[in-house]
Each structure stands twice: as structure tokens, then as C-alpha cells.
Design a protein that fits this description.
Layout: E1 7-8, E2 13-14, H1 16-20, H2 25-32, H3 48-59, H4 65-70, H5 89-95, H6 97-103, H7 109-114, H8 120-129, H9 133-156, H10 162-173, E3 184-191, E4 198-205, E5 211-219, H11 225-239, E6 245-249
Parallel strand pairs: 3-6
Antiparallel strand pairs: 1-2, 3-4, 4-5
The protein binds zinc ion (ZN).
Residues 79, 81-82, 84, 91, 96 line the site of zinc ion (ZN).
Amino acid sequence: MVVFELIDFKNANWDADALSQCFDSDTIVEILTILHSRRWPNDTTCPPKLHHFLWRSCKGSLATKEVLYNRYCVPSPACDRCGGANKSLFHALCDCPKAKIIWEQHAAYFLIVDVPHDSFPELLLWIHRHTTKEEFTSICVTLWASWFYRNKQVFEGDNGDPVKLAADFIRFFTAWSPPNYGWVKVNFDANVATRANHCLGGVICDDNGKVLVAGVHSIWAVDVYEAAAALYGIELEVRFGYSHVHLEGDSM
Ligand SMILES: [Zn+2]
């Protein structure tokens, strides 16, 4: 049996019957805490890129100091921003003094203070149970903004206004909507690293918000990253034969 057979694709969740045939109850509880990336589009009205961020957060694949240290990529696990020993994703997104600047201005700050954070899936599920859909979406976008700001500080030395950045994220990304009936929407973006090997990304969704195509493309040197990302999005839609297309970037 492979993992594929344990997933209920219709409901975008684990197949409880299949799990019960293979694992004991304790193991099933552990497995059920692992979220599916396809589950999130039903829970928020935000673009696929946010769902991808949440999915990577739950998988533990974001490049936190903890992850980099465990892979022997950095000599110290200490937080790059405050110097503290806590290297977890929760610290990077919520508990670091640099991240708290964002949350102290958020209506859900009292929730973030109390949220269980032994694991990121547990954190998200707890927040989901204790908030409305709109509040949950706002918190997810703010988590994403906090990660974006953290990366700007660590890799670019950017000390811009984090509260304004988070407010811009919420205003821009909670306004995401699917395309008109029969159309697809291409969301594109550029990830500019401090060294070479930058990335362009594009995601194509249908009018139900379902992800049809997602792709990334490495580039070594381009002067106009967002334009290159837009071109990559167009190349994707042409390659896969879509003719009624909304093209949307998220340059801040
Ligand atoms: Zn810190």
C-alpha cells in the first residue's frame, strides 16, 4: 500500500476507513494531524500561494534556523533577529520580539499568546476551531506576512514597517477571488534571493479555485523580475492551452 491509497481525494482529507485497516488508533491520531494542502482552499478565500505556505509550514519544510541547523547548513541555531536560542517556526512567526511587533497590532493577538504550538498543524487546527472563517484567514495571511518580513530582515537587512507590511498583505490577499465562470486565473510571482538562482512561480486555478497547474522556474539574472514572472505565467497558460485567462501578480 502507498500513501496515495490512504487519501480521500473527493473530500481532500485522509480516508479514515483505509487508515483503520492499516494502523492502530494512536498512529491514526498522529496521521490525522497531518494536513493536506488541498484542504485549505476550502477553508480560506486566499490565493494558492498562501495555501502552499501553510502546507510547507505544516510539513516543516520552511527554511527555519531549526531546519537549517539540523541539516548542518548553519553553525548555530540561534535566531538571526533576536539572538535567542529558540529556533522554532513558532518563534520565527509569532514569538520573536521582531514578529511580536506585527501581532501586537492584530485583533487576534490574545489568541496567538495562548495558542498551543508544539506542532504547526496543531497550532493551525486550534486557531481554526477558535475563530471565524474571516478571522482564520486574517491570521493565516498574517503568519505569511510575518514569514515574508522575517526573510526580508534576515536576507536583505530590511527594517521597513512590519505593521504596514502585514496590513498590505491582509488588504491585498484577502481580496483574492476566483476568475469568472469558464475562465482560469494565473497568479505569478518572483522570489528574489540575495545570491544567484532566483525563482519565478506561477499557479493556474479554475473558477472554483481549484489548482490546475503549478510551476516554478529558476533564473540566474533578470533585471525585471515581476515582468519575467508575468511572462512565465503566460508561458504556462499557453503551454497548457488555456484561452480565457486572468493574469494576476502580487507585487507589493
Ligand atoms: Zn527571535
